[in-house]
Design brief:
Layout (H helix, E strand, L loop, with lengths): L5 H35 L1 H12 L18 E2 L7 E5 L2 E5 L3 E5 L5 E6 L5 E5 L4 E5 L4 E5 L4 E6 L4 E6 L5 E5 L6 E6 L5 E7 L2 E7 L5 E10 L2 E10 L4 E2 L5 E2 L2 E2 L7 E7 L3 E6 L2 E6 L4 E6 L3 E8 L2 E8 L4 E8 L4 E7 L5 E5 L2 E5 L3 E5 L5 E6 L6 E5 L2 E5 L3 E6 L2
Antiparallel strand pairs: 1-34, 2-3, 3-4, 4-5, 6-7, 7-8, 8-9, 10-11, 11-12, 12-13, 14-15, 15-16, 16-19, 17-18, 20-21, 21-22, 22-23, 24-25, 25-26, 26-27, 28-29, 29-30, 30-31, 32-33, 33-34
Length: 396
């Protein structure tokens, strides 16, 4: 068996430690010498560097238009619609569905023959349909995924995050008929309603949907939600699916229903908004004091704007579903529209765009040099919608 000379091994280790120490000392001395040289010659180089640093652009918001492919000209005037989808911008006008990248370069252009074209989007796809007609198409930013027709006139259509499509039509037997299609265009669920269906909202897993219907009770318009699962369907005696649950009637004309965070659902009505848990239990509501002129939501944050024509100002109301707080803020200008994006509420007026926190505190703003009809916050940009053109500014 070989025997290791311990004393010789210790000697070699000591030599390696000394060598490492010498190398570290040399590096430290070199750095110190360089720092001393920088300090001693500061008056020579600092003024030049300071001039360069002051020229580095900041991330401040600017009203400067993007240039390049902007503005994008729109045929047909103010009737076009614009939404964000799949890191792109979808535009629907009277004759075409067009997709642009954020730089304004055209990705796709498809002609349509819809008399009353409507655009709705998910994070990845767009759904276009003919309101009052019988045609609809699922679109990606590169092609038409599929097109279908219905037997009766389309009243409303919505798109889920997994490309499920909800189409509500008139019907001979029912007041409204709902048909759900999967991402390939296969019909997977049907429901006939004796009441008018005004909205369909897919749940977060796209395993079911919340149907919002309106009716009348004692001469008052009321709204209610019904929840259905696609994988657990029971049928009544007439062959219609039975809901998992339904809410009590709410004395409002529901306008739109959306997911509100991961645990709630919010209803925007004509005289109040209310939010529910995922079992259909009412959590909170807010009754309007003025005329509703706009609303929006994203995640668990919602915002509403109310016009006061007498004082020519606007009331901004924010609803924080996570914190359970409702905040009212008086704005000293007339607001045109509102959009919630992430943790901010963006309000558009003829003079500029203003960003507010969930508590209604002004975070940032940008002045607009021209008058625009509307806007969309997409990515870190603001897309400005003029009568016959689209522009873009940075708003980070």
């Amino acid at each position: 068996m070989a025997v290791t000379d311990v004393s010789e091994l210790r000697k070699k280790r000591q030599q390696k430690r000394v060598l490492r120490f010498v190398k570290k000392l040399a590096v430290i001395l070199a750095v110190a010498a360089a720092a001393a040289a920088v300090i001693l010659t500061k008056d020579m180089w600092y003024p030049k560097l300071d001039g360069i640093l002051t020229k580095i652009p900041t991330a401040e918001n600017t009203s400067e238009l993007a240039g390049g492919s902007f503005p994008i000209s729109i045929d047909g005037g103010a009737s076009y619609q614009l939404e964000g989808m799949d890191n792109a911008v979808a535009v629907l006008d009277d004759s075409h569905f067009i997709v642009y990248n954020y730089d304004g370069k055209e990705i796709l252009s498809e002609q349509h023959t819809f008399a009353n074209p409507i655009l709705t989007v998910s994070s990845k796809k767009a759904l276009i349909y003919d309101l009052g007609g019988t045609s609809f198409s699922l679109m990606s930013k590169y092609k038409t995924v599929y097109s279908k027709t219905t037997d009766s006139a389309i009243l409303i259509a919505k798109l889920g995050s997994n490309d499920y499509t909800a189409v509500v039509t008139k019907d001979d037997k029912f007041l409204s008929k709902l048909m759900i299609y999967d991402g390939s265009g296969n019909n997977i669920f049907n429901y006939g309603s004796v009441e008018r269906i005004i909205d369909v909202t897919f749940d977060s897993e796209n395993s079911g949907c919340y149907i919002t219907a309106i009716g009348s009770k004692g001469g008052v318009i009321v709204s209610k939600m019904l929840y259905y699962r696609f994988d657990r369907i029971d049928y009544d005696e007439s062959g219609n699916p039975v809901p998992v649950w339904e809410t009590d009637e709410l004395e409002t004309l529901a306008i739109s229903v959306r997911l509100f965070g991961s645990e709630n659902i919010i209803v925007f009505g004509d005289n109040m908004c209310a939010y529910y848990d995922l079992n259909g239990q009412l959590i909170n509501y807010y009754e309007y004091g003025y005329t509703l002129s706009g609303y929006s939501s994203d995640g668990s944050l919602a915002a509403l704007i109310f016009a006061n024509s007498e004082n020519r100002n606007t009331t901004l109301v924010t609803v924080d579903g996570q914190a359970g707080e409702i905040t009212e803020v008086k704005l000293d200008y007339s607001a045109n529209s509102v959009q919630v994006d992430g943790e901010l509420v963006f309000v558009h007026s003829k003079d500029g765009i203003y960003a507010y926190s969930p508590l209604g505190e002004l975070s940032s703003s940008v002045e607009l040099e021209s008058d625009y009809d509307d806007f969309r916050r997409i990515g870190s940009y603001i897309f400005l919608m003029g009568y016959d053109e689209i522009n873009r500014i940075d708003f980070r």
